[in-house]
Specification:
Blueprint (H helix, E strand, L loop, with lengths): L22 H13 L2 E6 L6 H14 L3 E4 L7 H14 L4 E3 L13 E7 L5 H17 L3 E9 L4 H6 L10 H13 L4 E5 L10 H10 L4 E4 L5 H10 L3 E4 L8 H10 L5
Parallel strand pairs: 1-2, 1-8, 2-3, 3-4, 4-5, 5-6, 6-7, 7-8
Length: about 270
């Protein structure tokens, strides 16, 4: 299946009076049903060059990653974002999904956007305000919005600071489960447990298990994942999508990325 700008998504069918699940979301759901767990490669447009982004995306697709996510925790240059997304779209057939930290993270050339609410933010702007500002633009650009509940855990990294979050303590998995359940009840179709970019500790396995056993929507886990054994444990704990990002910025990224993607296997 090729994801191109000419056939963006079923989001335009909303004119019929109801909201259908778009092509990208259906693709993700189908892959999860088939494999149990999948991998997504996260690229920060402020930490990679256009050439590196295209090369990493191409290598990731060859290794089996299911989607390319584009976003970072700091303010993104809109022009740089567009150039990078366009370059990636030229070399991959898998979907390119925006992972925005603000309305500046919206780009017309992507296939979809995680339309995400930072559920444990202390600032209403990151819970709903940015969404109100961004929704008309998402519709105008005919991007496919995928509703996502975003939860910052543990250290939180830059995402926690920028989003003014109250990170959920590692030893309080029941709080993460409560947030995830609220996301499901609010109609969000994915929940993301975010440990933070570059953090030392990943989301605890007990927390992933409790969230997975509480909700009926796919669970995404990211932040601090650098080794194959971590990926295996996270998948065994119940994650449906494993996101790795920082490893792509390191030396010998291709080999490391291939190893991580190969570890996303449900036993």
């Amino acid at each position: 299946m090729v994801f191109g700008n000419s056939e963006h998504n079923a989001s335009r069918s909303a004119k019929a009076g109801f909201k259908m699940i778009g092509r990208v979301e259906k693709y993700l759901q189908d892959r999860i049903r088939k494999s149990g767990a999948i991998h997504a490669t996260l690229l920060d447009p402020e930490k990679t060059s256009v050439e590196e982004a295209a090369r990493t995306s191409r290598d990731g697709e060859k290794s089996g990653t299911s989607a390319i996510m584009i976003g970072g925790s700091t303010i993104t240059s809109a022009s740089q974002l567009e150039v990078i997304v366009k370059a990636i779209k030229k070399v991959v057939r898998i979907p390119v999904i925006l992972f925005p930290n603000n309305i500046t993270g919206i780009c017309r050339y992507a296939d979809a956007i995680w339309f995400m609410s930072l559920l444990n933010s202390s600032d209403p702007y990151y819970i709903l305000g940015a969404h109100i500002l961004g929704a008309p633009l998402v519709r105008k650009l005919q991007l496919e919005p995928i509703p996502l509940g975003y939860v910052i855990v543990g250290e939180g990294g830059a995402a926690g600071v920028i989003g003014r979050a109250f990170p959920i303590p590692f030893d309080k998995p029941e709080l993460a489960a409560a947030h995830a359940l609220a996301a499901e009840y609010l109609g969000m179709r994915f929940v993301y447990l975010e440990g933070g970019s570059g953090v030392k500790k990943t989301v605890p396995l007990e927390m992933i298990k409790m969230v997975k056993n509480t909700v009926n929507i796919p669970v995404i886990v990211g932040g601090g994942i650098r080794r194959a054994e971590q990926v295996e444990q996270i998948v065994d704990a119940g994650a449906n999508i494993v996101v790795t990002g920082n490893v792509t910025e390191e030396e010998k990224a291709k080999g490391r990325l291939t190893e991580l993607i190969a570890s996303v296997r449900v036993k």
